[in-house]
Amino acid sequence: MFRTFSLCVMVLNINAVIAQNTLGNSSTESFKNKTITQTRTASPPKDVSVFSWNISGDAFINEPALFNSLIEKVRPDILLLDEVTDKANKTQLRKALHASNVNNQSNWHMNFWVSGGRQRTVIASRYPIEPLQEFQRIVAYPDLNKARLQALIINNGELKYAQSLDSGISVNGAIIITASKRLLVVSLDLECCGNYPTSWEEDKRRIEVREIRKQIKRVIQRVQVDGIIVAGDLNLVSTVMPLVIISGPYEQPHSGLIAADLTHIDKMQTWTWDGRGTKFPSRVLDLVIYSPTSLILKDGYIFNPELLSIEAQQSLNLSGKNLEKIFNHLPLITTFSWHVE
């Protein structure tokens, strides 16, 4: 695990250097002066806050009060939920978000799609959503890769997983339309398990991100995209190659994506998946990845309810709850501002 984590840090640092180079070599002072000059003549785009969470099936169905309290506390503009059960629907999510409504009218736009079978991804936004044809259908595994994977899985004695490939990749994408910007958001949930680089699970993860990257490139070529955010459970239990692949490269001005550097509120812990009670250590599986040529990570943290005071837990309807079960994966909360041109 430590070797994997070190490699992940190295990859993120390399991506950060690439991203900085694409922004140009101007000094920090000149950038500040440029920003001040432009904001005198035009209002800068509003910040965008994102709440990303692997809800492990049914958090907003079985725990609507808790889910609603959390959203009310964070007040995000965009929700990116992965590993959502296929039994969930818009009515259930809207009910769980009722206190976030304005004047008793729903101010949430929702995007539920079918790819991923029993584990799907959902996008909700306070801003209007533009659906994308690339993600409105089942995002299928390429035929040759699918046949090869099915053979590997069957040989490993796991027939049900081989059949699940017909449901497609667990991914969803849409354009969020703010007052002046068009933000492409993608929520994903990659294959779990498979700790070895030669495992079929790791092979499957790499195939999944290659296909997702292909769909992102198609969107960028077809419609205007001002910025990109990809978030979800990458399940980096073996290598960081899935992160490297999804990072790009993409056409200018987007270039390469980088992962948000997030910690718990104690500024020390970084895990997003709780491995306590298992034979595996807690680790970083969930990430928020973004285009640094257009977006600036203004603030962000990994929400760990165990670090809250008793009073804060009570205010979020967490008292008496099995926190380890509900928060098997921790939510990621980020706020982005836009680069001023």
UniProtKB/TrEMBL annotation:
Keywords noted in UniProt: DNA damage, DNA repair, Endonuclease, Hydrolase, Magnesium, Metal-binding, Nuclease, Signal
One Pfam entry name: Exo_endo_phos
InterPro entries from the UniProt entry: Endo/exonu/phosph_ase_sf, Endo/exonuclease/phosphatase, TDP2-like
Secretion signal, residue range per the UniProt entry: 1-19
Domain of life of the native organism: Bacteria
Cofactors named for this entry: Mn(2+); Mg(2+)
Record GO terms (molecular function): endonuclease activity
Keyword check for NADP: no
Protein name: Endonuclease/exonuclease/phosphatase family protein
Organism annotation: Paraglaciecola aquimarina
